[in-house]
Structure formats: C-alpha cells, structure tokens
Specification:
This protein is an alpha+beta fold and 310 residues long. The chain contains 10 helices and 10 strands.
Amino acid sequence: MTKQEFQENYQYDHQKDLLGVGKTGTTYKAFDTHQGIEVAIKVVEAKPSNGMISLLEATEMAKKISHVNITYCQECYRFSFLSGVYDFGILRYYEEGNLQQLLDKKNLSFDEKDNILKGILAGLHYLHDNQIIHFNLKPNNILLMKDEVNNRYIPKITDFGFGVTENCFLNTSAAFDNYYFSPEQFNLRGVKENSDLWSFGVIAYQVFIGQLPFISQQSMNFDMEFPDIQISRRGLPDEVNSIPEPWQTIIKKCLILDPQKRIKHCADCEKIFYSSDVHADEDSQLDIVRANRMPCHKKIYYFISGKGHF
C-alpha cells in the first residue's frame, strides 16, 4: 500500500482522534473507508538502532500467535517523511479503552476484578509459552472488550514485543515513568518471564487497592529510589493484607524483589487457585538483592538481556 493509498483508506484527525501518547508511540482512532469500520492506528518512529524491535517486525512476529486475551496490529506499513521514518500499525478499535481508563472511571466488583486479572494472566501465560516476554506490561497496554452476552470485560494484552532483544538499551528517565518495571529492569539484571509477573503483581495490587504499591502518593514518583530501596525501607504496604485470597498470595509472590525467589511462571500463579495453601511467606516480600545495585544518578542508560526472547 502506498502512502497516498494509506491516507485515502484511513481517515483521522491528528487532534480530534487522538487516543493516547506513550513511550512507544501515538495512537489515533480512524475510519477504514474500505471496510466501513472504526480502527486504531498506532504510529511509531522506526528506529532500528540499539537492538529495539520495530513495530513492523513485532507485527510480523505476532501474526504467528492467537489468543483471546491478546491483540496486536493486523497490518503494519512503513512510510518515510521529512521528519523521519514511521511505522503505522492497524489495530482493532476497542470502544471500552484500556484498563487504566476503566479503573479511573468505574468501581469494579470483585467478580469483574477477578475475571479481568485471570484474563491478563492467561494472555501472559500464552505469550510466555511462545517465548515472548512482554517487558512493558501495564494497564495502558491492556485493552478491553465488553462481552455483552455474558456482561463481562475481556482484557486484551497489546504492545508486546518492544525492546526484548538482547543488547537493548533504554533511557533511564523513561524507565522512571514506568511504575510497573521490575527491580531487575532498573538494576541491570537479566529479564525473564517473572519480570512480567512482577508487573502483573503491581497491576493486580492496583486493581484491588486503587493505587500503586511503591510510589509516594504525594509526589506520584519513585522519589528517585529504585523499588528495592523503597521496599527495604517500607515493605509492602499493609493494604495488601486486605486483598481477598487467592489474589493476596499471588500478589505477594509476584512482588518478591529477588527474581530467583519470586514466583517463576504464570502456571505457578494459576496453581494457587486450585491449592489449599494460600498463605504467602510473610517475609518474602522483604528479600533484598543489594549486590550490583546501579545508582540512578550515575547511569544514563541501562542494559537488559535475558533468555526466553523472540
């Protein structure tokens, strides 16, 4: 498809149809004139440097997988402009928006929370089974579809596949904007499947408590401290003990600082639903890994590597 054909086929206004702006790109609501339906267009600058996976590459890889709890660009086109080269990914438009928007506007029932979190876990399990580490799991990257027949939300994980190659560098200032990153993502350690499970634990805590576990609610930032430093001083907030089982246990096992002691796989989380032992180790969330800590004021970039990638 040529640039002109693309512009004729997908019609949108850059200001009125803006859906969101994130670290990986900008998303617009558009009208597909050929199919007569609304779609979402994700626009990402194509930067093949620093080991990052482009949106075009991620789209091709994602076409090999399929699961009810994941969604990805159906097509992706690359065009050159005076300002640079950009990938334009075409996604299904989800009227319900993303999980963060839902949490901001609605008080969910326990059943709704339970169903959404189980769906996220199932989608994450499928990605890991296909050797894909999401790396950037957060509520903004979880779209929602409303099942009107069963009156329930179906979560759809998106934006997986960015920045999971070896030799990938990311700016630490961007990292501090992501309250869902695992400690090892901040501290120059290998990223594995249970790095995603840390992020899932933060999301689950937020879904039940209504706020994030490891930030100052006054300043809404990390106070320039890594999560492991904060937890060593404060531990998990007492509010975690008010979360119903088995989610309380799952969250505690996901939010263990040492990835070697943290729960390893999505299947291990799912087993807790069928286990009578739902008592987490009360001290597990206080395990601290102090070796090789990287002070944020001395490093501009950090290196992330690990196995289990594309």
